Amino acid sequence: MPSSQADEGKVPFVCTSHRIGYDYGARFGQCTVLRWIPGGTVFLAANHEGFVMVADESPLAKSLGEVEMPEPISIYRFESDYERMTYALRMGWWTGHQVQARGVRREA
User: What is the C-alpha separation between 26 and 51, in angstroms, rounded?
Assistant: First the structure.
């Protein structure tokens, strides 16, 4: 199995946070659902910026109020799909055995 920064316990990504309404679909194109999480959804995407995971917790932020959760959309950029999926596995967002949802896209 290949070694990665994620395997060594280093932070293998760059993360940015955004406010409710941020259009990550326009930035990354097609976003495929990886997993529904309490309060939101985790999506996968890829483009010239790298391999991307989007954690959109906007539904939770809307119920709590923007003061409690001002930037509920997190964008994680990885250098490889392996590092991205290793991180998803460690976060409990992917089991390694599940089949990714196909044809499920973020609604605009």
Answer: 15
Q: What is the DSSP letter of 105?
A: B
3-state secondary structure of 108: coil
Residues 76, 11 contacting (CB under 8 angstroms): no
Q: Tens of pLDDT along the chain (108 residues)?
A: 445 454 555 666 889 999 999 999 999 988 999 999 988 999 999 888 899 999 999 988 888 876 778 899 999 999 999 999 989 998 888 877 654 444 444 544
Nearest Cα to 58, choosing from 28, 87, 105, 17? 17
For 32, residues 6+ apart whose C-beta sits below 8 A from its C-beta are 43, 44, 45, 100, 101, 102, 104, 105
Contact 61, 72 (CB under 8 A): yes
Provide the 3-class DSSP secondary structure of residue 79.
coil
